[in-house]
Write a structure and sequence with these properties.
- The protein is an all-alpha fold.
- The protein folds into two domains: 59 residues, no CATH class; 211 residues, MetI-like fold.
- It contains 13 helices and no strands.
- The longest helix is centred in the last third of the chain and has 35 residues.
- The protein is globular and about 75 Å long.
- The chain starts with a helix and ends with a helix.
């Protein structure tokens, strides 16, 4: 018993150290966002002091520097993230319900294609995707959620199918006896029971879309539409000079909302992932 107790203590301290290591980049970016540009270059890991402390000046500079407004980038990031997550959740939950309840060759092929899409590297299709998006008009913030649906469907369908297979079929049969059609059964009966996995998938997809840089960079017209990661990448002055203080400030402004969102919903992630993995 003592050996097992000491093993748990050692394992706990190992995880504490690992957590600190993972948190360090965010901490470094956080206190560097309050330092003047020169000290960030020369002494990145030093805490700000009386000489290097800039207060909120870097945040003001980051929001005002450049020709492209930062708040416009924030608006596009929020819109793309919300539309993409909503489209992924709605379409994949309905598809997963159909795959789970209609056990035929077509549903199996669709399911295996969705699972297979998770192992296809984005780099294999990105150039073809960019050309297709330009040709079909999917290169705007209002249409790029369709592309995110294609890339996010694999994981979402996989998790939803695992959860739906563990749901009792008798409730849906009772709804059908009461006269409910497929749509009414899904939205009135199935969707409320999907709440744990629905929130889990939503959190994962929102975090992915919000932080994504490569897909918007390839698809969107960067002179007209920029998300926050693209805006930060273009935050430079003449001759390639970069104001690192302003960059750190904008990075923190992009990190804080998604961290708060994750901490608020993290309890649903574990329960939903466990339910989707174990059931069925």
């Amino acid at each position: 018993m003592k050996r097992r107790h000491y093993g748990k203590i050692i394992l706990s301290w190992v995880f504490v150290v690992v957590s600190i290591v993972y948190m360090m980049p965010i901490v470094v970016v956080g206190y560097n966002s309050f330092k003047e540009n020169g000290s960030i270059n020369t002494d990145t890991f030093a805490l700000p002091n009386a000489e290097t402390f800039m207060g909120w000046e870097n945040y003001k500079t980051g929001m005002t520097v450049g020709e492209y407004p930062f708040l416009k980038s924030v608006g596009y990031s929020f819109m793309i993230t919300i539309l993409s997550a909503a489209l992924i959740l709605l379409c994949t939950s309905m598809a997963a319900w159909y795959i789970s309840r209609v056990d035929d060759i077509f549903s199996r092929i669709v399911y295996y294609l969705c699972v297979f899409s998770m192992i296809v590297p984005f780099q294999m299709v990105m150039f073809t995707l960019a050309k297709t998006a330009n040709t079909t008009g999917l290169n705007t913030p209002w249409t790029i959620p369709v592309i995110y649906l294609g890339f996010g469907a694999g994981l979402a369908v996989f998790m939803f199918v695992g959860f739906v297979k563990g749901m009792p079929l008798a409730i849906e049969e009772a709804a059908a006896i009461d006269g409910c059609g497929p749509l009414r059964t899904f939205f009135g009966v199935v969707l409320p029971m999907l709440k744990p996995i629905f929130i889990s998938v939503g959190v994962l997809e929102i975090m992915w879309v919000w932080n994504d840089y490569l897909l918007p960079y390839l698809v969107l017209d960067r002179t007209e539409f920029r998300t926050i990661p693209i805006h930060i990448q273009y935050l430079q002055g003449s001759y390639g000079h970069v104001d690192l203080g302003a960059v750190m400030a904008l990075i923190m402004m992009s990190i804080v909302p998604i961290v708060v969102f994750y901490l608020t919903c993290q309890k649903y992630i574990v329960s939903g992932v466990m339910a989707g993995a174990v059931k069925g």
